[in-house]
Write a structure and sequence with these properties.
By secondary structure, the chain is of the alpha+beta class. The protein has 4 helices and 15 strands.
Length: about 210
Protein backbone atom coordinates (compact mmCIF):
# COMPACT_ATOMS: atom_id res chain seq x y z
CA UNK A 1 0.00 0.00 0.00
CA UNK A 2 1.32 3.39 -0.96
CA UNK A 3 0.26 6.35 1.13
CA UNK A 4 1.59 9.88 1.38
CA UNK A 5 2.84 10.89 4.83
CA UNK A 6 0.76 13.38 6.76
CA UNK A 7 1.88 16.96 6.94
CA UNK A 8 3.60 18.50 9.97
CA UNK A 9 0.46 20.43 10.81
CA UNK A 10 -1.70 17.31 10.72
CA UNK A 11 0.77 15.44 12.89
CA UNK A 12 0.68 18.20 15.50
CA UNK A 13 -3.10 18.03 15.57
CA UNK A 14 -3.07 14.27 16.03
CA UNK A 15 -0.68 14.57 18.98
CA UNK A 16 -3.32 16.72 20.65
CA UNK A 17 -5.97 14.12 19.87
CA UNK A 18 -7.70 16.25 17.25
CA UNK A 19 -8.62 14.88 13.85
CA UNK A 20 -9.26 17.56 11.21
CA UNK A 21 -12.54 17.20 9.35
CA UNK A 22 -12.05 16.46 5.68
CA UNK A 23 -14.64 16.00 2.97
CA UNK A 24 -12.58 13.12 1.54
CA UNK A 25 -11.93 11.36 4.85
CA UNK A 26 -12.92 7.70 4.69
CA UNK A 27 -12.13 4.19 5.86
CA UNK A 28 -10.11 2.00 3.51
CA UNK A 29 -8.66 -1.50 3.74
CA UNK A 30 -6.36 -3.97 2.05
CA UNK A 31 -5.02 -7.44 2.86
CA UNK A 32 -3.03 -6.01 5.78
CA UNK A 33 -5.79 -4.11 7.55
CA UNK A 34 -7.82 -0.93 7.84
CA UNK A 35 -6.67 2.68 7.70
CA UNK A 36 -8.38 6.07 7.74
CA UNK A 37 -7.51 8.24 4.78
CA UNK A 38 -7.81 12.02 4.40
CA UNK A 39 -7.25 12.88 0.80
CA UNK A 40 -3.82 11.53 -0.13
CA UNK A 41 -2.78 11.30 3.52
CA UNK A 42 -3.52 8.91 6.35
CA UNK A 43 -3.85 9.37 10.10
CA UNK A 44 -1.53 7.99 12.77
CA UNK A 45 -1.73 7.64 16.54
CA UNK A 46 -4.89 8.36 18.51
CA UNK A 47 -7.84 9.72 16.54
CA UNK A 48 -11.46 10.39 17.43
CA UNK A 49 -13.72 9.40 14.53
CA UNK A 50 -17.48 9.79 14.82
CA UNK A 51 -17.15 10.16 18.62
CA UNK A 52 -15.15 6.93 18.97
CA UNK A 53 -11.42 6.61 19.65
CA UNK A 54 -9.08 4.55 17.48
CA UNK A 55 -5.32 4.04 17.32
CA UNK A 56 -3.31 3.82 14.09
CA UNK A 57 0.31 2.64 13.87
CA UNK A 58 3.14 4.45 12.09
CA UNK A 59 2.08 2.89 8.80
CA UNK A 60 -1.47 4.13 9.31
CA UNK A 61 -3.06 0.76 10.07
CA UNK A 62 -5.77 0.51 12.73
CA UNK A 63 -4.73 -1.43 15.82
CA UNK A 64 -6.86 -3.93 17.77
CA UNK A 65 -6.42 -5.75 21.07
CA UNK A 66 -4.33 -4.56 24.03
CA UNK A 67 -2.24 -1.44 23.51
CA UNK A 68 0.18 0.32 25.86
CA UNK A 69 0.38 4.06 25.31
CA UNK A 70 1.95 6.75 27.53
CA UNK A 71 2.32 4.28 30.39
CA UNK A 72 -1.32 3.09 30.35
CA UNK A 73 -2.95 0.00 28.88
CA UNK A 74 -6.00 0.29 26.64
CA UNK A 75 -8.15 -2.25 24.80
CA UNK A 76 -9.18 -1.79 21.18
CA UNK A 77 -12.12 -3.91 20.05
CA UNK A 78 -12.13 -5.92 16.81
CA UNK A 79 -13.78 -2.87 15.22
CA UNK A 80 -10.81 -0.76 16.41
CA UNK A 81 -12.99 1.24 18.80
CA UNK A 82 -11.40 1.81 22.21
CA UNK A 83 -13.27 0.01 24.99
CA UNK A 84 -14.48 1.81 28.11
CA UNK A 85 -16.52 0.98 31.19
CA UNK A 86 -16.29 -2.79 30.82
CA UNK A 87 -14.30 -5.91 31.73
CA UNK A 88 -12.01 -7.51 29.13
CA UNK A 89 -10.31 -10.86 29.79
CA UNK A 90 -11.13 -10.33 33.47
CA UNK A 91 -9.44 -6.91 33.53
CA UNK A 92 -11.33 -3.72 34.38
CA UNK A 93 -11.42 -0.93 31.82
CA UNK A 94 -12.67 2.25 33.48
CA UNK A 95 -14.76 5.09 32.07
CA UNK A 96 -11.56 6.86 30.98
CA UNK A 97 -10.69 3.86 28.75
CA UNK A 98 -7.76 2.85 31.02
CA UNK A 99 -7.05 -0.64 32.40
CA UNK A 100 -7.30 -0.37 36.19
CA UNK A 101 -4.54 -2.27 37.97
CA UNK A 102 -4.98 -1.03 41.56
CA UNK A 103 -8.21 -2.73 42.58
CA UNK A 104 -8.89 -5.06 45.50
CA UNK A 105 -11.49 -7.49 44.16
CA UNK A 106 -11.61 -9.23 40.79
CA UNK A 107 -14.85 -10.22 39.08
CA UNK A 108 -15.15 -13.66 40.69
CA UNK A 109 -14.42 -12.29 44.15
CA UNK A 110 -16.97 -9.51 43.68
CA UNK A 111 -19.62 -12.03 42.62
CA UNK A 112 -18.97 -14.10 45.76
CA UNK A 113 -19.29 -10.97 47.90
CA UNK A 114 -22.62 -10.16 46.22
CA UNK A 115 -23.96 -13.65 46.88
CA UNK A 116 -22.79 -13.46 50.50
CA UNK A 117 -24.17 -10.01 51.31
CA UNK A 118 -27.38 -10.17 49.24
CA UNK A 119 -27.70 -13.89 48.54
CA UNK A 120 -31.22 -14.26 49.90
CA UNK A 121 -32.56 -11.76 47.37
CA UNK A 122 -30.35 -12.81 44.45
CA UNK A 123 -30.86 -16.56 44.86
CA UNK A 124 -34.62 -16.08 45.05
CA UNK A 125 -34.53 -14.35 41.66
CA UNK A 126 -32.14 -16.93 40.20
CA UNK A 127 -34.53 -19.73 41.19
CA UNK A 128 -37.03 -18.34 38.66
CA UNK A 129 -35.00 -19.36 35.58
CA UNK A 130 -32.75 -16.27 35.65
CA UNK A 131 -28.98 -15.92 35.39
CA UNK A 132 -26.21 -13.48 36.35
CA UNK A 133 -24.48 -11.61 33.52
CA UNK A 134 -21.55 -9.24 34.00
CA UNK A 135 -22.44 -5.76 32.77
CA UNK A 136 -20.61 -2.47 32.34
CA UNK A 137 -18.37 -0.99 35.01
CA UNK A 138 -19.10 2.41 33.48
CA UNK A 139 -22.30 2.55 35.53
CA UNK A 140 -20.32 4.20 38.34
CA UNK A 141 -20.70 7.51 36.51
CA UNK A 142 -24.48 7.26 36.78
CA UNK A 143 -24.21 6.25 40.42
CA UNK A 144 -21.96 9.22 41.11
CA UNK A 145 -24.04 11.76 39.21
CA UNK A 146 -27.49 10.57 40.21
CA UNK A 147 -27.00 9.00 43.64
CA UNK A 148 -23.75 10.55 44.93
CA UNK A 149 -22.20 7.07 45.22
CA UNK A 150 -18.62 7.87 44.26
CA UNK A 151 -16.84 4.59 43.66
CA UNK A 152 -16.05 2.28 40.78
CA UNK A 153 -18.16 -0.85 40.68
CA UNK A 154 -18.86 -4.06 38.84
CA UNK A 155 -22.37 -4.26 37.44
CA UNK A 156 -24.10 -7.64 37.64
CA UNK A 157 -27.31 -7.96 35.64
CA UNK A 158 -29.78 -10.66 36.62
CA UNK A 159 -31.49 -11.58 33.36
CA UNK A 160 -34.10 -14.05 32.26
CA UNK A 161 -32.67 -16.93 30.23
CA UNK A 162 -33.42 -17.27 26.51
CA UNK A 163 -32.80 -15.60 23.17
CA UNK A 164 -34.36 -12.29 24.26
CA UNK A 165 -33.31 -11.88 27.91
CA UNK A 166 -35.05 -9.35 30.12
CA UNK A 167 -33.19 -7.59 32.93
CA UNK A 168 -34.92 -8.48 36.19
CA UNK A 169 -32.57 -6.75 38.64
CA UNK A 170 -29.11 -5.17 38.84
CA UNK A 171 -26.50 -5.46 41.60
CA UNK A 172 -23.30 -3.43 41.95
CA UNK A 173 -20.17 -4.35 43.90
CA UNK A 174 -17.42 -1.85 44.71
CA UNK A 175 -14.12 -2.97 43.18
CA UNK A 176 -12.18 -1.74 46.23
CA UNK A 177 -14.74 -1.56 49.04
CA UNK A 178 -16.81 -4.68 48.38
CA UNK A 179 -19.93 -2.62 49.02
CA UNK A 180 -23.02 -4.28 47.56
CA UNK A 181 -25.78 -2.17 46.04
CA UNK A 182 -29.16 -3.34 44.75
CA UNK A 183 -31.51 -1.64 42.35
CA UNK A 184 -34.26 -2.31 39.83
CA UNK A 185 -34.35 -3.72 36.33
CA UNK A 186 -33.42 -0.41 34.66
CA UNK A 187 -30.08 -0.19 36.42
CA UNK A 188 -31.18 2.43 38.93
CA UNK A 189 -32.58 5.20 36.74
CA UNK A 190 -35.18 6.92 38.89
CA UNK A 191 -35.17 4.13 41.46
CA UNK A 192 -33.78 3.88 44.96
CA UNK A 193 -30.37 2.25 45.24
CA UNK A 194 -29.98 0.16 48.38
CA UNK A 195 -26.75 -0.62 50.20
CA UNK A 196 -26.93 -4.23 51.40
CA UNK A 197 -25.06 -5.82 54.29
CA UNK A 198 -25.73 -9.31 55.70
CA UNK A 199 -28.89 -9.54 53.53
CA UNK A 200 -30.31 -6.37 55.08
CA UNK A 201 -30.81 -2.87 53.71
CA UNK A 202 -28.53 -0.59 55.70
CA UNK A 203 -28.86 2.56 53.60
CA UNK A 204 -30.92 3.91 50.71
CA UNK A 205 -29.81 6.40 48.08
CA UNK A 206 -32.50 8.36 46.28
CA UNK A 207 -32.37 9.76 42.76
CA UNK A 208 -31.04 13.32 42.94
CA UNK A 209 -30.81 14.23 39.26
Amino acid sequence: MKKKLVSTVLTALLVMGITPVSASAEWRSDSTGWWYSQGNSYVKGWNEINYKWYYFDNNGYMKTGWLKSSGNWYYLKSSGEMAKGTVIDGYIINNDWVWITNYKYNVDEAKKIMLKEDGEYVNKILSKNNEIVLGDVGIQQALKNNYKIDEEVYGFYINSKGEDPVVVAVEFVGINTGNVYRTGSNGGSGNTVKLIKDNKIVKEYTWVN
